[in-house]
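Notes from the 1:1 (GR / supervisor)

We went over the backlog. Supervisor wanted to see one worked example end to end before approving the batch request, so GR pasted a single chain during the call. The sequence is below; no edits were made to it. Supervisor asked that the structure be written out right there so they could see what the output format looks like.
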Amino acid sequence: MMTSAIAGCSGGSPSSGEAGGNTEQGGAKTVNIGVLLPLSGESAVMGSKQKDAIELFFEDYNAAGGIQSMDGAQVNLVFADTLGKPETGVTEIERLINQEGVDALIGPYNSSVGAATAPIAERYQKPYLILSSVADEIMKNDYQYVFRANSCTSDILATISTFLQDYSGQNGFEPKTYGIVYENTDYGMENYIQLKDMVENTLGGTLVLDEPYQANTSDMSSIINKIKSEQPDVVFPVCYLNDAILFAQQLSEYQANTTLIATGGGFAVSDFCTNAGAAAEYAITNAGWSTGILDYKPEEAKKINEKYTEKTGMELDEYGAFGYFNASVMANVLERAASTDADAIREAFLATDITADDPELLLMPYEGVKFGERDGMTNQNIYSCNIAVQILDGRFQLVAPYSLVGDESPLVLPVPAWAER
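Structure output shown during the call:
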């Protein structure tokens, strides 16, 4: 049933708004899943992609018969708009739990919202599958009801470190000096701390530029001028979408030559390629996912991308893929829980042992899904990992890890100077 749901059944949408506890429809229970996402505000683009993917999965899942262990129970999605703000996220998760009576939760996108809402789910003992919020610190609180299946900040740093070690020396690309530009939020600060440690203790490089900035800024020219002055070989930007577009455009405008290796965020969104235009070319970014992975996956994975494109007019990117993947993990857990009891769902999360050949991992590069202790985190997927992509000809091209792409990587290094493009 899971394979047919993922591979492409057609059917009606799960409803998204009426909950108030479990209901009976045609003799089958309805299981209510609260979904916390930024559907308006600065992060709405990413939240909307995730919403579309979660809906797509459960449309097919419900049409394929729903939760068999619960007599075909249908999944009802109850969406809440966090606005990308921690205080709104707290208000909305309280509403989903206390007023809507949801049985479990998925979300959010922003790490700051994840950090604020996870203790609420834990206090109410409501199973919560963290979606996209990548900050390691979220999962360093010994939570019993909070889980994360997708990648985290530690995966980002491991991907970037391995990339630089694998490709240093290629065509004369031998970075020695580095800069970090990061927004002054939880997301930015955690990435900065780990990037700084990586530069100094793993890469043995010199940090010549260390620049925080106010998120959603309207001007980065002062930082760009510092990049021109210090001339770091590599700059690590930690930005969400609007800031990422502005940063790339002003790098181009001021002809500040460096190699961009982003931690993800706004640089991993297809809208970055579209809106930054030529300024986005040759940027390298860590990513949780890319369409290039589909070349290494079964035909059923390509069908998911086709269905998503039919629904949205856009191909899957990291955010849509994470949404679809987390929805499939939640369905797997509910099927094994065979109950809406919170402790039964929690036990099913803890017993999860999904392998690379299982349908839940059709889209993902992971070896499996198993929640455990890792890097000081509790209930993190021990198999989560990331990839690296480079924007070439206006599209994300899979360039690493070397273990996946081998000598076929289309990677362009060194990055051409602006005057040579």
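Supervisor's comment: The chain has two domains: 2-151+295-381, 154-287+387-420.
Batch request approved.
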